[in-house]
Amino acid sequence: MKTTSGFQKMKSSGEKIAMMTAYDAPSARGAEQAGVDLILVGDSAGMVVHGYDSTVPVTLEDMILHTKAVRRGAPDTFVVTDMPFLTYHEGTKETVQNARRLIQEGGAHAVKMEGAGNVVDSISALTSGGVPVMAHLGLTPQSVGVLGGYKVQGKSDEAAHALLEEAKEIESAGAFSIVLECVPKQLAELVSKQLSIPVIGIGAGKDTDGQVLVYHDVIGYGNGFVPKFVKQYSDVDSIIEKAIAEYVNEVKEQRFPEEQHTFTMKEEQLKSFYGGVK
Ligand SMILES: Nc1nc(=O)c2c([nH]1)NC[C@@H]1CN(c3ccc(C(=O)N[C@@H](CCC(=O)O)C(=O)O)cc3)CN21
Ligand SMILES: CC(C)C(=O)C(=O)O
Ligand SMILES: [Mg+2]
């Protein structure tokens, strides 16, 4: 299993890091077997699995349950779990308690948290307690209410400078990696070069140290809206719809189940059974 030192080596050698989300055992198994370097149990689960319109309603219990399932499906892959909305903002004591549950109960190897500012203290507290932390800057979906929508971040000179400074603070606080979401590619490249820890991009261009995408986006499963930065490598929705429509049709037309899907009783047993029926 690759771990934090492995990801650091990948950055040094220029080998790109391929990260993907997973939320349950089968998605995690697929990711592991296909060679994903690390799995993120993202709070995007709230949107792609539970049908909420943001990540805000996701709870710690939800993330523990998803993490347990992912670990069972991908026992040999490093698993990072998102700390949900407002579970790392009431001081380091509560942050440590909540991260402890994701790790001890969920089985996460590391946790991820969005933003800088006060969050930097939480990152220090966790890393000094032995918990690897991944940070997340740029478009931070848990702050959708403050950001006023899912928009590209760091576009102005001022915002770009602020983001670079935050990234440096996060590195100093001991984070092992940073996710950079929805920023101009030139800013993402600069941050990746200025930091020694791996920068994983999503909607941040090709010059970061790695990429992350949501499982459902990669395979084309269950999406209405697809962000510009997504490449769908399959159209699983159409495969699912075709299979289910065929099933429904065969039931209606009595072509399913067939002999091979059916259990039968032996002749003698049948006789005594029928004989016993009143
Ligand atoms: N399926 C899915 N994929 C994701 O990548 C994802 C989620 N869900 N849920 C949690 C967050 C939310 N994310 C999002 C959602 C929407 C946009 C979006 O609408 N982007 C616009 C850019 C708008 C602009 O130009 O500023 C786009 O057109 O892609 C971006 C990231 C990323 N995460
Ligand atoms: C999109 C990634 C970075 C994420 O935070 C999530 O899936 O929740
Ligand atoms: Mg997330």
Automatic annotation (TrEMBL):
InterPro entries in alphabetical order: Pantoate_hydroxy_MeTrfase, Pyrv/PenolPyrv_kinase-like_dom, Pyrv_kinase-like_dom_sf
EC number assigned by the record: 2.1.2.11
Protein name: 3-methyl-2-oxobutanoate hydroxymethyltransferase
Keyword match Oxidoreductase: no
Cofactor: Mg(2+)
UniProt catalytic activity: (6R)-5,10-methylene-5,6,7,8-tetrahydrofolate + 3-methyl-2-oxobutanoate + H2O = 2-dehydropantoate + (6S)-5,6,7,8-tetrahydrofolate
Gene name in the database record: panB
Function according to Swiss-Prot or TrEMBL: Catalyzes the reversible reaction in which hydroxymethyl group from 5,10-methylenetetrahydrofolate is transferred onto alpha-ketoisovalerate to form ketopantoate.
Similarity field: Belongs to the PanB family.
Active-site residues annotated for this sequence: E181 (proton acceptor)
Origin organism lineage: Bacteria, Bacillati, Bacillota, Bacilli, Bacillales
Binding positions for 3-methyl-2-oxobutanoate per the UniProt entry: D43, S44, D82, K112
Record keyword NAD present: no
Gene3D superfamilies referenced in this protein's UniProt entry, alphabetically: Phosphoenolpyruvate-binding domains
Name of a matching Pfam family: Pantoate_transf
Main location: cytoplasm
Cofactor details (free text): Binds 1 Mg(2+) ion per subunit.
GO MF annotation terms: 3-methyl-2-oxobutanoate hydroxymethyltransferase activity
Assigned keywords, A-Z: Cytoplasm, Magnesium, Metal-binding, Pantothenate biosynthesis, Transferase
SUBUNIT field: Homodecamer; pentamer of dimers.
CDD domains linked: KPHMT-like
Annotated positions binding Mg(2+): D43, D82, E114
Pathway assigned to this chain's UniProt record: Cofactor biosynthesis; (R)-pantothenate biosynthesis; (R)-pantoate from 3-methyl-2-oxobutanoate: step 1/2
Family matches, as NCBIfam families: panB (TIGR00222), PRK00311.1 (NF001452)
UniProt-annotated location(s): Cytoplasm
